[in-house]
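mind reviewing this fold:
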Amino acid sequence: MGHVQRNGGYKMSEFIYGKNEVLAYLNTKGVVRNIFLMNTGKYPEIEEAAKKRKLQVQRVDKYVIDKKVKGVHQGVVAEIDGFKVYDLDTVIKEAKNKLIVMCDQIEDPHNLGAILRTADATGVDGVIIGKHRSVGLNSTVAKVSTGAIHTVKVAEVTNLVQAIKTLKDAGYWIVAAENGIEAIDYSYLSVDMPIVLVMGSEGKGISRVVKEASDILVTIPMLGSVNSLNVSVATGVILYDIVNRRG
């Protein structure tokens, strides 16, 4: 597998799997190198989508697919040119809703996939991830995102603090979700401004330098016995509140 180009581009050859994920990708203009279907299964929608794009389908034994991916593949795997990544300037320039999510050291691919899915549903302009100490775009993220990995602009940056400076220069307010005495209830946040919502890692939360670079800290009140939500769930709660109050 290759590397991500510095100024946006694709990771070289990747495998995606599962009926919904492969079908969603076939309905985009993304490059497909190979499609593998288990020889005992029936996949009329995928075969029809492949036919429309004049792509050949390879029927193979289950063990062939098992060797290519780990996970519930449902007998469907596609080899693609990779997951597109964008440079930060493009995300800012093409933003329509002035709503961006930044992920700080999120390492679980299931959480990143779920965040991308919610970002697509709420009209987020882009998701920013770090190139270090963070999960990148991979087949598990793609599967969990149910196609959103192909519709939401994802920017990989080397330095989140430098990215925050660039975003501030572009007029964004940096809103970090963090439990603490300085944090306000998320429902009190003013939403009529360009917002970058920063979500922290599953165990460590938001890093000190990113928190210090943020403008506003918000928290989700916990009314039960647990003191925090899963990061992807928390992201959904705050994003939908912003979207609903913006009308």
Observations:
- Residues 231-246 form the longest helix (16 residues).
- The radius of gyration is 19 Å.
- Confidence is low (pLDDT under 50) at residues 1-7.
- Residues 124 and 144 are 17 Å apart (CA to CA).
